[in-house]
Amino acid sequence: MFTKDAGVLQGTIELLILKRLSAGPMHGYGIASWIETATGDVLRVEEGSLYPALYRMVQKGWITGAWGLSENNRRAKFYRLTKAGEREFEQQAHGWLRLSDAVSRAVTAVLPDGRSR
Amino acid sequence: MNDPHEEFDQELQFHIDQRTRDYLAKGMSPETARAAATQRLGDLARVRRTCAAVLAAGRAAERRRTMLTVSWLDVKLGLRMFARHPGLSLVSVAGLAVAIAISAGYYLLVASMLDSRLPFDEDGRMVVVRVNVVSAPGAGGTALPSSADFERWRRELTSIADLGAFRDDARNLIVDNGPSTSRVDVVRVAAITASGLGLTGVAPALGRSLSEEDERPSSPPVVVIAHEEWQRRLDGDPAVLGRVVRLDGVPHTVVGVLPEGFGFPVNHRAWVPLRADDDGDSASGSGTVHVFGRLADGLSMEEARAELSIVGGRMAAALPATHAHVRPQVQRYTAAVVGVDDPGAQVGLRVLQFGLSLLLVLVAVNVSILVYARTATRIGEIAVRTALGASRARIVAQMFLEALVPAIVAAAAGLGLLSVALRPFRAYLRDSPTDVVPYWFADAPLAVSPGVMLYAVVLATIGAVITGVIPALKATGRRVQCALPQFSTRGAGIRLGGTWTALIVAQVALAVAVLPAALHKAAQAYRAGVLEPPAVVAPLVRGTLEVSPGAAAPDDGPRLEDVSLRTARLAVFFQTLESEPAVSAVTFASHFPGEEPAGLVEIEGEAAQPVVLRVQPNRVATGFFDLFGVRVLAGRSFSAADSTPHASAIIVDQALAERLGAGSVLGRRIRFVNRSRDGVPRENPWLEIVGVVPAFTAAIVPPVGYRDPLPRVYVAGRAGDLDPLTAVVRVTSGTPAQFSHRMREIAAAVHPSLKLHRLSTVVAEIDRERKVLRGIAFGVISVTASVLLLSAAGIYAMMSFTVARRRREIGIRTALGADARRVLLGVFGRAGAQIGGGILLGLSMAAAVEWGAGADGLGGDGHLVLPAVAALMFAVGILAAAGPARRGLAVQPVEALREE
User: Fold this and answer.
1) Which of A79, B154, B413, B445 has the fewest CB atoms within 10 Å of its CB?
2) Same domain, B316 and B371
3) Contact A77 B11 (CB under 8 A)
4) Does the beta carbon of A32 lie under 8 angstroms from any beta carbon of chain B?
5) B166 within 8 A of B179, measured Cβ to Cβ
């Protein structure tokens, strides 16, 4: 499940960040681009809210940031998952899948009048 | 790159640049691309603010975490310092522990006196009503109200519910165990109103409690007895109800047994109904009683006080002859019984408590000197830490925690010491022959309670603030940064100021000044405490013989108030005792030898001014000296004629004979000097010295005063003149303890109201005193030892400090060819002079005290004690200086210079 105090959107951003970083270190811009591509441009992250989310996650100890060189040789801050972040990702992904599964089953379920939507 | 805000800006810049690059690739113009990229990030200022807030929250959390880890680190560091400086730790702990034990012990005593509660009165609503007599300005005091007052209050008072009253009395409890055998014991009896006893809500273990019916004069006399008395005196007889026992000869039927541990009102063992006709006076309402009750529900002490003052005013108006100067007042029950309800007494107790806490402050200041000396050697460390960003508060906090470790250890040791010291004290209270200790104290024995522990922890914290924070503030207050370049010179940056030095000197002086008295006192107490009682007292039994005022014999027989009648009865008593097969001799005196109170005598002589001496007079039976194996050195002993009312013979001891000067003192005349209440000396008849006996005592004289016992004088007296009197019996067969019961039986048989109090063997009595004396010796020696230890530690600290500070100088002078020993002598010269000065100052103070005390001073011992103490302090000084001196001699010139 999402963390107790986080809203759905914030929780969603955190889950998506965790998902991207589970594949390896990446900078903020890379994360934002990946989210766009991965969601087929459906979820366009408001990029301004990405960085506060990243900083909060650093503070929670889920990810760490370190300066490195980007693919075009620019200095960029790369974030990577910590052990706690990996555990958090497992937990959040599991919760999200259960929730979305339950919601989609309810949405596609046949109603008493025989219609499905 | 350490600034998080700068990092953040760079991160955002990278983001915008990348997005711009993407848009350019999609064919946007550079301006449009940058504008679009920036727009996608949203309100940049808001993003920055949000991120800054997140970062700030993170930093705060980090600081909290660091604080916790650092504090734990400080505790560990404190423990390490404690182990690394065992000498300093030992001194701090020993000094603080004794001070904490004394303060906490006194706190415990005060708390148990002020806050004790009756077991059935958890909320402390039980009160007593007494009267204040305000006859004249400055005169008067607290008195007991009369029975009539009680009856009136019982009718009128509404703020105190269930008013009760009792009269306190000691009576012979005589239990007949057959036609010819009976057992006699003196018990504390409360003649109490049934409602008053009912107020306790205590259900009898057997039978019933007292009823109002019992209070009627026509009702048969009944008694309710304590569980302990039932077990002890009546052998736990299951058929005790309905048995008849005699109280001072009057038969009473036992109707109930109250449960174990119960002793209300104070420490009573039997309860009889309080009757209006009890001792004649009560019928007229002039007999006095103790009045008590419970505050009515919802009402406060103040409301009860207000009502009593109105009632008191009404009584004063109605009965001006008797009540014009009487003011009734209400007091808390337990505090009133213990005698601390008076606000003045409470303030006194608290002031003394504050004074004792100052003892801790004194010790703590001493320890802080030591800690400061150690801190001085760490000035470099402090400077480095300050340079690395540690705040002053941080360093002070660390030093406080370092000081807290020994302080807490000291608190634990102090509490341990206290509980060891309390054990004999409790035993002493338990074995006290008089029933003065209130029964509720037995339920809550003096023990180290959580409250006392908390108090000790508070004291330890105060101690740690003084021993840790003050040196830390002093060490960090100077420009620590300046110390950085010279931190290898170990403390050269700070100085042991004049205040510290003066403190040490004053302390050495004080130690020297108080030590003679303390050692003398401790030695005296110890000597008396381990003294074996003389063989002559081994077979002796002693008891205090008393006649109850107004006590009646059965069947309204004669009362013993008449002197000649009493003399006759007592003569029978002593004759009966002497005729006992186990008894070889009997005597009596107004006081047991050794326990005589002081008095004054005037010596007849040619001098214009009368010579008046302090003595301890005793009025004794004619055979008194024989029984104690005292032979007359000169003149004669007493004869029967000497005890007649107008006889003029007096016997003095050798101590007085020596004071009277050379030559025979026989035939010289002395007389007692006493003054009437308004200070006018009374003219007493002259008495002629007919004999001299050796100075002797058969009791252990507690060294309460700072003096040797006074000379003693003896006059002969008749038993009937003395009330109370001390009877002494020498037992030849069986143990003296076994004979005690027989003595009570004989007394009760001669007259049922003749009571023997404090009945015990002389040896047992001496043993009790000896325990107290050993306790005193232990206490005085503990305090003295801690004072000595602290003085030694102070000298040690000063010496170490001097060596540390002048290390470089010693090195340079040695390098220049000076003899190290001479250099050292120069360095220590001042310190040595200070110690010497301290010792001299202390000695002159002690000598002044000794001179001022005159005969009450150390006496002959003084010539030995004063130089001994000076030598002791000097030895302590030398020992304390030895370590630092060795370190000073070991200073290598090259190393000392290299440190520069």
Assistant:
1) B445
2) no
3) yes
4) yes
5) no
* pLDDT band at residue B466 under the 50/70/90 scheme: confident
User: Are A47 and B41 within 8 A, CB to CB?
Assistant: yes
pLDDT, mean of residues B494-519: 71
Residue A49 at interface with chain B, using a CB cutoff of 8 Å: yes
> How far, CA to CA in Å, does B214 sit from each of B243, B269, B275, B564?
17, 18, 8, 37
Among residues B741, B761, B781, the one where a domain terminates is B761
ipTM of this predicted structure: 0.88
For B400, phi and psi rounded to 5 degrees?
-65, -45
Residues B553, B690 within the same domain: yes
| Nearest beta carbon to residue A52 from set B21, B44, B47 | B47
**One-letter amino acid for residue B652 of the chain:** V
Dihedral angle of Cα B806, B807, B810, B814, to the nearest 10 degrees:
-170
Question: B21 to chain A: which residues are within 8 Å by CB?
Answer: 72
Most confident of B21-30, B183-192, B562-571: B21-30
What domain count does chain B have? 4
Q: Taking CA atoms, what residue in A is nearest to B61?
A: A59
Interface test with A, best of B10, B16, B18 (most A CBs within 10 A): B18
Residue A6's pLDDT is what?
37
- Residue A21 in domain: yes
Residue B546: enclosing H or E segment and its boundaries? Answer: strand B540-547
Give pLDDT tens digits for B782-823. 777 777 777 777 777 766 666 666 667 777 777 777 776 777
Same structural domain, B556 and B655: yes
| B54 → closest Cβ in A28, A52, A67 | A52
| pLDDT in the model for residue B897 | 60
CATH number at residue A100: 1.10.10.10
Can you read off the two tokens belonging to residue B742?
Answer: 């027989």
Choose the closest CB to A29 out of B1, B19, B61: B19
- Which of B475-489, B717-731, B739-753 is predicted least confidently? B475-489
Residues B175 and B256 in one domain: yes
Which of B2, B54, B62, B65 to substitute to test the interface with A, most A CBs within 10 Å? B54
Which alpha helices (DSSP H) does B450-562 contain, by range? 450-464, 470-477, 480-483, 498-530
Q: Which domain holds residue A69?
A: 8-106
Tell which B residues from 371 to 410 touch A, by Cβ distance under 8 Å.
none
Four-point Cα dihedral B188, B192, B195, B201, nearest 10: 0
Q: Are residues B318 and B367 in the same domain?
A: no
**B860 compared with B80, residue with greater pLDDT:** B80
User: Which of A51, A57, A71 best probes binding to B when mutated, by most B CB atoms within 10 angstroms?
Assistant: A51
Q: What is the mean pLDDT of residues B869-886?
A: 72
Whether residues B426 and B552 share a domain: the answer is no
What pLDDT is attached to residue B650? 93
Higher-confidence residue of B328 and B521: namely: B328
Instruction: Look at chain A and report how many structural domains it folds into.
Output: 1
Residue range A23-58, pLDDT digits in tens: 999 999 999 889 888 887 777 777 888 898 999 999
Degrees (nearest 5) of the Cα angle B73, B77, B80?
140
The two three-digit tokens of residue B746, written as one number: 């004989």
SS3 of residue B589 by DSSP: strand
Contact A55 B10 (CB under 8 A): no
Q: Is residue A67 within 8 angstroms of chain B, CB to CB?
A: yes
DSSP string, B53-95: HHHHHHHHHHHHHHHHHHHHHHHHHHHHHHHH-HHHHHHHHHH
* Residue ending a domain, choose from B729, B761, B793: B761
Report residue B105's pLDDT band, with 50, 70 and 90 as the boundaries.
confident
Give the DSSP letter of residue B182: E
Q: Domain containing B239: what range?
A: 135-324
Same-domain pairing of B107 and B141: no
Say if pTM beats, i.e. exceeds, 0.80. no
